[in-house]
Amino acid sequence: MGSGTRTSRRAKKTVETGEPLVKHTVAEQLRAEIVSGALKPGSRIVEGTWGRKFGVAQGSIREAINILAQEGFVTKASGRSARVVRLSEESVLRLYELRGALEGLAGRLAAERKADTTRLQEIVDAMRLATEENVAPALLDADLSFHLELCSLSGNEYLLEHARRILLPFFAFVRIRMIGSGQATSAWGRDLEVHQRIHDLVHEGEGRVSEQYIQQAMARFAATAYEAWEKKPLPVKRGKGKAT
């Protein structure tokens, strides 16, 4: 039996036994560093430094960074080191405005086409359970899934594509701030009923009402986001809308 055959069988065994590839293991380690606060928002991820720390090749770090970029945890610019995602308070406000428009439209389209909301309700139930058990990562995973599912139910693939570009880094940042500041899931208690109401309106086919409700909900979320994530109030605006 040739060595090539033995190598192929070993590779096949790795897939069958579910042993993670190096890049996924390293991505998990880097993700833990980010979420724990060891890597702060906006900080550079130097491939050589983390390669030495984890005892892996620099290429494995690069591949792990690509995974985290797809998940929204890091940003990459051509010719520059990757950085941990960072959103200013003003950026969060603007993103909520955009989310209100996109997800409001998604809710209206989903309601008008009488989309099947079974999965959406399952996600709300998962959010409720995670809140009751105070499991923040599970709650945030379910919350992201809810908004992606809502956009998917619109039936508009372009809307979903744009939503993913916004929601993945947004929720990655929320995860970093929420877990890093030690917030309990109880802070999301009232928001659960908002998600339930969104489901109900879409399920009942209330297109315009769904759109308006989602837009109003996003405006409310924007007003309390940083206070909930970091126990830090949003800046008070005076005069011609300049933050102080």
Q: How does the overall form come out from the CA principal axes?
A: elongated
Radius of gyration: 21 Å
- What's the number of helices? 10
Q: Spell the H/E element sequence.
A: HHEHHEEHHHHHHEE
Detailed description of the structure:
This protein has 244 residues and is mainly alpha-helical. It folds into two domains: 9-84, Orthogonal Bundle (Arc Repressor Mutant, subunit A); 89-232, Up-down Bundle (Four Helix Bundle (Hemerythrin (Met), subunit A)), CATH 1.20.120. 70% of the residues lie in helices and 5% in strands. It contains ten helices and five strands. The chain has a three-stranded antiparallel beta sheet with strand order 1-3-2. Helix 5 (89-112) packs antiparallel against helix 10 (207-230). The longest helix is centred in the middle third of the chain and has 24 residues, at 89-112. The radius of gyration is 21 Å and the shape is elongated. The model is unreliable at 1-19 and 232-244 (pLDDT under 50).
Task: Furnish the topology, listing elements before pairings.
Layout lengths: L2 H15 L4 H15 L7 E2 L1 H8 L3 H14 L2 E2 L6 E3 L4 H24 L5 H15 L3 H18 L3 H24 L8 H15 L3 H24 L6 E2 L3 E2 L1
Antiparallel strand pairs: 1-3, 2-3, 4-5
